[in-house]
Amino acid sequence: MLNPWIVFIFSAALIIWAGTTLTKNADLISEKTGLGAAWAGALLLPLATSLPEVVTSWRSAVIGAPDLALGNVFGSNMFNVAIIALVDLISPGPPVLRQVKTGHILTAGLSIAVTSFVALAIILPPSLTFLGVGLEGWFILFFYLSGSRLLMRYERRFPVLKTDLPSSHLKDKTLTQGILGFVLAGGVIVFAGSQLADAGKVIAQETGLGETLVGSLLIAVTTSLPELATTLTAARLGLFDMAIGNIFGANFLNLFIIFLSDLFYQPGPILKNVSFNHLLNSQISIFLMSLAVISLIYRSRKTVVGLGLDSLAIIITYLAAFVLLFTLGASS
């Protein structure tokens, strides 16, 4: 068998390429079909950028690595919020969260609520199961579908996400090319994501780092790179609402992945078979999103070395969490 680190690095490179390609083709499909801001921004773009998380967590569940699956979800959500600091760093003018609409609070609030429920579900005793999925998994599905409907209704009433990128780079492309490119990139992600999960499990065992730590840091950062590329591209074009909307939209979609993982995890409800160390990950994720919500409401003007105070707090929290996970030796 190939060295797991080589497999991991090669798979990560494929995911970076395919994730970026997937996002570009999602933009092309949106442009050529005229789907509109609400549908494309709230569903298509987050789906494109979150597909690596979907595949990796699915594969982790299939191979019996529940901590890898859940660590990938929480770790990706933490990293996604940390991207706000990078957006702030490259954006001119006042702090970026002061420049966007407060409607993003709705998506962030939904993500915080579902994350809190997941943490509670980890603590509570085993529940009933239906079709192999625990009752808490079906609640997550219900929360996601209800939340998505709420977001779509809100978007129609108060447009928040500007998703129309300058389309000059799309003039020579056809809808067929966009669909084929989307499917091809998706296929590459399915392959690379599966390899990434397999390699991650071996690395966790051989290094003694544990699935929780490997999933929350190594795999989570890798699978979140498409969000990073898309968000920074939108920010450079001045589409700050699209950038921030993609972050919170991806976080909300990532939580739905827990239900999908539960479907394919054979030993039983996945949240009843994970390490309690995920409670730390969940609380850090909630804290980071709460910092962003506070900033969206307060809208501070102050900056330090080009960063808003909110972004500075976010990046310090993320780095502190990184150190804390290693210090505690988080393991499954």
Q: How would you describe what is shown here?
A:
- Helices cover 76% and strands 2% of the residues.
- It is mostly helical.
- The protein has one domain (4-258, 274-328): NCX, central ion-binding region (A middle domain of Talin 1, Up-down Bundle), CATH 1.20.1420.30.
- The strands form two sheets. A two-stranded antiparallel ribbon has the order 1-2. Strands 3-4 form a two-stranded antiparallel sheet.
- The longest helix is centred in the middle third of the chain and has 33 residues, at 175-207.
Rounded to an integer in angstroms, the radius of gyration calculated over CA atoms is 19 Å
Helix content: over 70%
**CATH uppermost class:** Mainly Alpha
Order of helices and strands: HHHHHEEHHHHHHEEH
* The CATH superfamily title: NCX, central ion-binding region
Second-tier CATH architecture: Up-down Bundle
Unreliable residue runs = 161-166
Which structural class matches the secondary elements? mainly alpha
Task: Report the end-to-end length measured between terminal Cα atoms.
Answer: 24 Å
Tertiary shape:
globular
The largest sheet is: 2 strands, antiparallel
Using DSSP, what is the number of strands? Answer: 4
What CATH calls the topology is A middle domain of Talin 1
Mean pLDDT: 81
Q: Strand order, biggest sheet?
A: 1-2
Total helical elements: 12
Q: What percentage of amino acids are in beta strands?
A: under 5%
- Taken together, the total number of domains comes to 1
